[in-house]
Write a structure and sequence with these properties.
Layout lengths: L2 H23 L11 E7 L4 E2 L2 E16 L5 E6 L6 E2 L4 E5 L2 H36 L5 H33 L2 E3 L4 E6 L6 E2 L6 E16 L11 E6 L4 E10 L9 E7 L13 E7 L2 H10 L2 E3 L4 E3 L2 E7 L5 E5 L1 E6 L2 E6 L6 E6 L9 E3 L2
Parallel strand pairs: 1-22
Antiparallel strand pairs: 1-21, 2-3, 3-10, 3-14, 4-6, 4-9, 5-8, 6-7, 8-10, 10-13, 11-12, 11-14, 12-13, 15-20, 16-17, 17-18, 19-20
Helix pairs in contact: 2-3
Length: 367
């Protein structure tokens, strides 16, 4: 063994001794686990409690109408504002009627001209009738004069009907209230152009109020006219009992949901206003509730996570960690959203959390 090889062996021995000493001096690393995030779980399905299904509705007048004009023109006078009480027949606003008034004067002149022509034709008819009796006029001449006289009469009648049409259009320039109520919305001001069918005002009869709500098709079998429902109106701090008075039998124009109307008791009080939100609890039979829970996969919108074009929610694993699951959503209603795929009915998901969740985050279940 030469001197170079001996030197190399010595260096290796020194390195091994140094590494061993360092490993003995190195203190063990303490791994600090993340504090579990407190979460609440819920079962996917119809939002229900105490044998009832819960939906949200709004207070509205029992009669409501969008007020518009049948003729196009400039609004020359707006007589009301939002919140005003109006009587039936009260003038609400007027439309510029200069063109219609000009046409009215024109039709009056045409009527006068047609009546003068009819009087002339009448005299000719009377004269030729007398001549025909004296055999001084032929039957053909009398027939022609008779036709001319009848034509003049028809022309006068046509001018009068034209005048009636103008008068009707003139009446459409003064818009009145169809019933007594409150102006709940004003959509145009003086000087605006009003078009036929374009709402200018909304009038509601608020002396009698009701509640309107939408019921999904998988819940409509649980409601019936006359059923009592419990209602909570937070804005007015009221709890009321009402009865279902109407169920629309078609959902063609309401996105697959059915409109129901709920009558309010006469003791509801005066602190209720149109537009207030109402939480409605509809009692259902256990068999219907089970069917609804099995068919509908509903979760609160607040539990949905949005990331770019994806939607998901967090579920809990058996190791008490959070797991983000991507889902496909359907229609929304009353703060609830339907899960079309990615979550089964009755399956648990994280309803709320006392911290920011992420995949693998430790969680602690709380009631």
């Amino acid at each position: 063994m030469n001197i170079h090889q001996k030197s190399l062996i010595a260096v290796l021995i020194i390195a091994m001794v140094t590494a061993s000493a360092c490993s003995q001096d190195k203190k063990p690393t303490t791994i600090v686990a993340d504090k579990p995030i407190e979460v609440k779980l819920a079962n996917a399905g119809i939002k229900s409690a105490n044998g009832s299904i819960e939906i949200t509705g709004k207070v509205e007048g029992i009669q409501s109408a969008n007020i518009s004009t049948r003729v196009m023109g400039t609004i020359t006078s707006m007589r009301v504002k939002a919140g005003d009480q109006v009587k039936a027949g009260q003038v609400l606003f007027t439309i510029n009627a200069i063109d219609i008034k000009a046409k009215s004067a024109q039709t009056e002149a045409m009527i006068a001209q047609a009546e003068a022509a009819m009087q002339s034709a009448k005299k000719d008819f009377e004269r030729f009738t007398a001549l025909f009796k004296q055999q001084s006029a032929t039957a053909k001449e009398l027939e022609q004069i008779t036709l001319h006289y009848k034509s003049a009469q028809a022309n006068v009648e046509a001018m009068k009907q034209m005048k009636n049409e103008v008068n009707a259009n003139l009446s459409y320039t003064t818009i009145t209230a169809p019933f007594a109520g409150v102006i709940s919305q004003k959509l145009a001001e003086t000087g605006s152009i009003a078009s036929p069918g374009m709402p200018v005002l909304t009038l509601e009869q608020v002396s009698t109020l009701q509640v309107s709500a939408l019921v999904p098709e998988n819940m409509v079998a649980s409601v019936a006219i006359g059923n009592e429902v419990e209602m909570t109106i937070d804005a007015a701090d009221k709890k009321l009992t009402g009865k279902i008075a109407q169920i629309n039998t078609s959902s063609q124009f309401t996105g697959g949901q059915y409109v129901i109307k709920i009558s309010l008791p006469s003791t509801a009080g005066k602190r209720l206003y149109s537009g207030m939100y109402v939480n409605i609890a509809i009692p259902v039979k256990e068999s219907i509730k089970t069917t609804l829970d099995n068919e509908a996969v509903m979760v609160p919108e607040s539990s949905i996570i949005y990331k770019e074009q994806l939607t998901g929610l967090y579920t809990a694993t058996t190791q008490n960690t959070a797991l983000l699951r991507w889902v496909r959503l359907g229609k929304k209603q009353a703060g609830q959203v339907e899960v079309l795929s990615g979550l089964s009915a009755g399956e648990q998901y994280i309803l709320s959390a006392e911290g920011k969740l992420y995949n693998g985050a430790p969680i602690k279940l709380v009631k």
